[in-house]
Amino acid sequence: MKIKIDRNLCIGAAPCVAIAPEVFELDEEGKAIVLDPKGADDETIKLGAEACPTLAVILFDEESGDQIFPKVA
Known about the structure:
The two termini are 20 Å apart. This protein has a single domain, classed as Alpha-Beta Plaits, CATH 3.30.70. Strand 4 and strand 5 form a beta hairpin. The chain is 21% helix and 23% strand. It is an alpha+beta fold and 73 residues long.
């Protein structure tokens, strides 16, 4: 799974960090960054993304490149 953080959407609420601290952390600006995209299993990473109140954590299928979260209409 490929992880992208939309820094314009991130407000530093940090549920992603609380759920997957080995994957995400807040930088000096208080915005989420990816520490290690392999730091947790895919389900935990998805839970962290889903917990983001602004949907700033975007997940892609590594093989196809398709966006898997948030779902695109």
